[in-house]
Specification:
The complex is a heterodimer of chains A (324) and B (293). With 324 residues, chain A is mainly alpha-helical. Chain A has one domain. Chain A is built from 16 helices and 2 strands. In chain A, strands 1-2 form a two-stranded antiparallel ribbon. The longest helix of chain A has 27 residues. Chain B has one domain. Chain B has 293 residues and is an all-alpha fold. Chain B has 11 helices and 2 strands. In chain B, helix 1 crosses helix 9 and helix 5 packs antiparallel against helix 8. The chains are: A mainly alpha (324), B mainly alpha (293). Chains A and B meet through helix 5, helix 12, helix 14 and helix 16 of A and helix 4, helix 7, helix 9 and helix 11 of B.
Chain lengths: 324, 293
């Protein structure tokens, strides 16, 4: 715990002073890094901790950025727009979590995949509100400075990391991890699984909602494809899994690596970048299921979903049922 | 509204819906076959379909080969592609959790989609090999591409069903789906059967891709729409249940056709998700799924 605070201080203090020294280019890079941490950490909160994989967390990002952009166009100050984005994401997540988290395993993943598509379709079709496929352009006069935007993303990253650390170290973190290890068993031992899952899910939607507004203000233009973006979904997943899912520092480490890679590949070859993400995802699942942190820690945690390449048929279907 | 209730109009919707549903059925049956045998949810299934579509397009535009002539060839190519994919990649995740299989195949889907974008760009392609329309009893109009695509899709699905029911390998596949360990004890080469299963599933996806290329325009980004509809279908029909996926596919086609007719085509695109949500809420394990163990 004390070590965590020391690492956090070592990261945050220089980050606070970055706007005074860094060029706009570097500041933009860092802004993207904080956004990645904020998003990945949110994904970690629900999917890393409980094992319920969300393939559609970009939906909250998209909902938030549209809410924020529309609020700014309506004349709201930008900080209220950020709050609006977070609140709307929260409002959408609550009934959604209550509905979908009664479902076990793959059904939730599929439902979230559908949500992102549905969000994109609605944003495209609801022309009166969202200007459809043309997207919303925000006039620079309405938007905060780069430094303000940078600070916003930094704060969101800190909030999301703090949320994960707080939950991880508390009773709820234990309960969430118990759900991941064996939902039926933990339910039998008195864990209110649905309540825990829904709380984690709703909390995990707030920061992406606010980050979406930050993104809209930073780029000053959003359209359905850029905010309900599959690339965001896969980045969140890759970042968390690469660093170490269900840990406090894994997503931060993963975000540093992925944002670095992105800086090298993204600008020139977007498709190659996506293919790289896909490959990275497969490699991590097959060879590094506990992420890079697990190598650093050397303390091997045994998890039932730990992947062993089972080519020999004896370990197939029937045997695994018992372990699950 | 009254003219919509005319029996001829209703029949028109139903026939159109069944023909469109046949394509969904073919696709969903392939997806469900893999899930039934190895509990792997293949998120790259729609990308396999698009591989078939793009092969059709290449053969049609460069050599002017008719899609229906290309169909057996493309199915064979896709079979071996799937067979190899199972050998190299999917076999490694068999027997792990459903979520790790979801993520590996999601990575695969992303790779294939972007490879497609890199090679073919995001422009929409079409294969206008067939034109014209049939008239049934002078009243009901069926466009020939849709009619042919629907009938071929039904035939392919039916032949795979018969293969699974009657052929020796088909029985072995069902045995592995039933219980892999017992199948192994009975002398079935389980690993090989899984490779054949994935190959078969890929060939079905390829056939669906050929049919798709004749009736819709497509791009490498067409995949997600179809994979989500397929999920809706297999959840309606029961995961791992071949016949369930077949009837679920037809049902979705008909429901979409009626929604498009009575409300609007945009709503028809969303009806699959609504069905999915409603069914998951009423029966969290699918209409024909077992209760959770």
């Amino acid at each position: 715990m004390r070590n965590d605070l020391i690492i956090a201080a070592l990261l945050v203090v220089p980050a606070l002073f970055a706007p005074m020294v860094a060029s706009p280019y570097h500041l933009t890079f860092l802004l993207n890094l904080w956004m990645m941490i904020a998003l990945a950490q949110s994904w970690n909160l629900i999917s890393g901790m409980t094992g319920y994989v969300s393939f559609g967390h970009a939906a909250f990002f998209g909902i938030g950025s549209y809410a924020g952009a529309i609020a700014i166009l309506a004349g709201w100050p930008w900080y209220l727009a950020v709050v609006a984005g977070a609140v709307l994401a929260w409002i959408v997540a609550l009934p959604l979590g209550v509905l979908t988290l009664r479902l076990r395993g793959p059904y939730f993943a599929i439902a979230m995949l559908g949500l992102n598509e549905l969000g994109r379709i609605i944003a495209t079709l609801w022309v009166d509100m969202t200007e459809g496929g043309d997207g919303i352009a925000l006039h620079p006069d309405l938007l905060p400075s780069l430094t303000a935007n940078y600070t916003l993303m930094l704060i969101l990253a800190i909030i999301s990391c703090g949320m994960v650390a707080w939950i991880y170290n508390g009773r709820m973190g234990l309960e969430l991890r118990a759900i991941r290890e064996g939902e039926d068993v933990s339910e039998m031992l008195g864990v209110d699984t649905v309540r825990n899952k829904v709380i984690a899910f709703v909390l995990s939607a707030i920061v992406p909602g606010a980050a979406g507004v930050g993104y809209a203000m930073f780029t000053s233009y959003i359209d359905p494809a850029s905010v309900f973006a599959p690339v965001l979904n896969i980045q969140m997943i890759v970042v968390v899994l690469l660093g170490g899912s269900g840990t406090i520092w894994g997503p931060v480490l993963g975000a540093f690596i992925v944002t670095g890679l992105q800086e090298v590949f993204w600008a020139q070859f977007p498709m190659v970048h996506m293919m790289l993400m896909g490959t990275l995802l497969i490699v991590v699942i097959l060879y590094l299921p506990n992420g890079i942190l697990s190598i650093i820690h050397k303390r091997k945690r045994i998890r039932p979903d730990q992947i062993t390449p089972t080519s020999e048929p004896a370990k197939s279907a029937g045997m695994q049922e018992v372990e699950r | 509204m009254m003219e919509l209730l005319d029996p001829i109009v209703l029949t028109q919707f139903a026939v159109g819906g069944i023909l469109a549903g046949a394509l969904y059925a073919l696709l969903a049956c392939g997806l469900n076959l893999v899930f039934g045998v190895m509990k792997v949810i293949n998120l790259a299934h729609a990308e396999l379909m698009l591989l078939g579509s793009f092969l059709t397009w290449l053969l049609f535009t460069t050599f002017e080969i008719h899609p229906l002539v290309a169909l057996p060839f493309i199915m064979v190519v896709l079979f071996f592609f799937g067979y190899g994919l199972q050998r190299v990649l999917i076999e490694r995740i068999v027997g792990t959790t459903e979520l790790s299989s979801l993520m590996v195949t999601y990575g695969l889907a992303i790779i294939m989609m972007n490879l497609g974008l890199l090679i073919f760009s995001s422009d929409f392609k079409a294969v206008p090999a067939l034109q014209g329309a049939w008239f049934l009893w002078d009243e009901i109009i069926i466009s020939i591409p849709r009619g042919v695509a629907g009938i071929v899709a039904l035939l392919v699905t039916l032949s795979v069903y018969l293969f699974l029911e009657k052929a020796r390998i088909g029985k072995a596949i069902r045995a592995v789906a039933e219980h892999a360990d017992v199948a192994l004890i009975c002398g079935i080469d389980v690993v090989k059967i899984r490779m054949i299963t994935f190959g078969l599933s890929a060939a079905m996806a390829g056939a669906a891709g050929v049919m798709l290329s004749m009736i819709y325009s497509f791009s490498p980004e067409t995949g997600p729409d179809f994979i989500l509809k397929c999920f809706a279908i297999i959840i309606i029909g029961g995961m791992g249940n071949f016949a369930g996926a077949f009837f679920g596919g037809l049902l979705l086609g008909v429901v979409e056709a009626f929604t498009a007719g009575f409300i609007s085509t945009q709503w028809a695109e969303g009806v699959a998700y609504m069905l999915l949500v409603i069914i998951l809420l009423v029966r969290p394990t699918g209409l024909r799924g077992k209760a959770h163990a």
